[in-house]
Amino acid sequence: MRKFILCFFLIFLFSKGVAQKQTGIEISYHNKDLKEVFQLISQKTGFKFYYLKDWLPEKAFSATYSNQTIDHILQQLLKDTVLNYYILDEKIIITQNSLVFDEFFLKDTTSVTQSFPSEGDKKPIFYNENTFDEEIITYKIGKEDNSSRKDFFELSGKVMNRENGFPLNNVAVIVEGEDKGTYTNIDGTYSISLGAGSHLITAKSLGNDVLTKRVIIYNDGSLNFQLKENFMELSEVVVDMKSDRNIKDAFTGVSQIDVQSIKTMPLVLGERDLLKAATTLPGISKAGEGALGFNIRGGREDQNLILLDQGIIYNPNHFFGIFSAINPFTTGGIEIYKGNIPARYGGRLSSVFDIRTKKGNTQELAGEGSIGPVTGNLALEIPIKKDKSSLILSGRATYSDWILKSLDEKSLSNSEASFYDVLANYTHQIDEKSDVSVTGYYSSDKFSITSDSLYSYQNRMFSGTYSRKLNEDLESSINVSNSDYAFDIRYESQFSDNFLNSFRINDTKLRLDFEHDISSAHNLNYGMSTKLYVIEPGKLEPLGQESSIEAKYLNKEKGIESGIYFSDEYNMSEDLLLNAGLRFSMFNVLGPDLVNHYATGEPKTDNSVIATSSFDNNEFIKTYSGLEYRFAARYKFADDFSLKGGYNSMMQYIHTLSNNTLVSPTDIYKLSDTHIKPQKAQQFSLGLFKNFNDNQYEISLEGYFKLTDNLIDFKTGAALFLNEFIETETIPGNGQSYGGEFLLKKNSGDLNGWLSYTYSRSFIKLDSEFQSRRVNMGEFFPSNFDKPHDFSAVLNYKITKRFSFSANFLYQTGRPVTYPIGKYEYNNSEYVVYSDRNKFRIPDYYRLDLSFNAEGNHKIEKLAHSFWSISIYNVLGRNNPFSVYFVTKDGQIEAYQSSIFAVPVPTITYNFKF
């Protein structure tokens, strides 16, 4: 009987509350806080509110309602807060995050009471506070919504440095005990899907303390982490902080370079160099110590796409190739794709260097700089709006002219060599779903080794990106960029032949990208891009009124390169991952231009021209197009052991023309046209990847085979200077390269670093139906950068918390060269007869570098943290040849060998950071 009376009483109270909830009221408030609004509702209705004051947000509310129910008013009032409500009789109970349910069922008297809502509703969220570790802070995320049908919710946030507010990338965010986790991206943000209820979330990375937080998930929400630096980890050397990415990803041939990983590497002339560090990794090499470009898996220098915040850098080098043009103090990291290249990239055959500027400090002014024997570098991070926007400004310059002027060598006493570069990067987080980033870059080099010629070249780049998260599964970005590269040769002599020769290439690009997680099994990437090339292939102008040089201007080259791509990363199972992509690219050659037509069956020469066509400005001259296939697969034998394979086909519509054996600042770029076809390549790759000891050690073995078509090379004695019809000097060729790459890396510990070995072969075949156009009888022969053996060792040893020792050792097979094999006399002078092209090799290259590094004391409250590096480049004093050449002088044949550093080069550099 008592139970019946109690149930009747509860039903009576509930029905009374329901009736009152449905009564319409009129109420209006303006700029009131939540407490004041509750008081106003109480006065209007008689309802009493029960809540904790600490729960109420500090914000103002304004609204007007006419004949609206209490339910409707409270739903609108609390919709942008984490507060819920429950009406019982004339009481309104405010809850934080959680809901109060009407129906109860006692499942087990010995455990927590569990409630089950009405049919069709979701179950409430339970957790047992008695099991919580009191040292771990608990955060409630979102608010419970009984109408939601989602089983999983999105937790996102940002991981920052506690001291300076810097965003931290590559931080592992792990859900303890649930086999879930992710990594922060370059701006420190992360996102992870979690079920409702209690979870332990841990953020950890090398160089920072581990931080664990407990979250109780009610709905979507955010949680930020601020990590304290662990100064005991400052001298760790890590190339890839995503310690198991090499096992999990589908792509082969991917390398990451982090700024901290090269902090203690021995330096040449005191300049920290990210791109030079890349050449110590397998499959990445340079043709010589002073070469400007990179040779990736047997590819040419012009087959590499160098991107800075999605804008192209055509010449990423300073000072004869000794320094890179990328400032390490503004760089967040580099991803290098040399095996499987994702479908979103196009336009190059061999590799992509994706360089990203780091995110600036949005909390306080910060900076980093260095002072070396020939260069100075300073980068500042300036908060514009706290937690929202930041500006990075950097400048770097050399003061090296004094070295050249102080040399005893008279031929160099009037020489000069200088460079500078500047970068500005602005980032702004508009809201939780969108942000914008703008980067501007400019560099300038000048050098003169002879008294009559001054060489100069400049890079200029602008890039702007707007990114937006359209919904929980779809992200988009739009980028616009402009890149410009130019060089000048200023010749001034005692005679009347002074001139200025110049070249310029400019491209403007627009691209749109989408990333779509349609399910746990499928991740789609798709987008499109278009790019306009404008090339000024050369002009010659007289210098001074007395110059006898006649001005000459070559017609501009113009072309539009467009592409559309789609790729799907498909998790077929926990062990098998596939990534399949398709890219369609098109290139349109534009006027104005003059196109020669040559007689069939004759070599292209001035004498075989039978007609000439003239095209107007922006008129389509020729169109090329094709499909590019990108396929990669990974199979995991275990969590730390996987097999990967892939196939790539690519097209490239731009070429580099040079008379030099090695790439130089005065190389010119040539677009594909009626006579010069686009370069094409296919690459097959296969690799085994294994980690040991909780990812402390990594080992990989990769093999590749690459076929290339439509390479451009030149006939013997080719004349390229201001040649309007360059096809008369070219020979189309085919390339073939193959090799194997081995990498052993230790990521942490007092002794860390990596060992890499590459065996690679690169051949080219220049055949023609005309005997005069064949090279080496039309057979395959080694390319200029064919170096079969390449070994690198980068080792770092931490002596104490502040002092460390580092060493690099490099060995490479000497590159091919053409030597004289005979001589003859003509007009009382000796001349040489040369061997087949690239039949011989220059001596092998090897070099040992050492450095001793000293950190300043690790007190947190300091004006600046200092770092000294004392290094010796080329300790053994090896006279490594850069090139070998032969000249006829005074009727005699003389051989010459040029070297960049033939003696040990000591350096002391001071670095500071605040």
Automatic annotation (TrEMBL):
Q: Supply the InterPro entries for this chain.
A: Beta-barrel_TonB_sf, CarboxyPept-like_regulatory, Plug_dom, Plug_dom_sf, TonB-dep_rcpt-like
**Which UniProt keywords are listed?**
Cell outer membrane, Membrane, Signal, Transmembrane, Transmembrane beta strand, Transport
Intracellular or extracellular location(s): Cell outer membrane
- Indicate the segments forming the TonB-dependent receptor plug domain, all copies: 254-348
Coarsely, its chief localization is membrane
Q: What is its membrane topology? A: Multi-pass membrane protein
* Protein's UniProt keywords contain Transport: yes
From the UniProt annotation, give the residues forming the signal peptide: 1-19
The record ties this protein, via Pfam families, to: CarbopepD_reg_2, Plug
Say which family it is in.
Belongs to the TonB-dependent receptor family.
The protein's name: Carboxypeptidase-like regulatory domain-containing protein
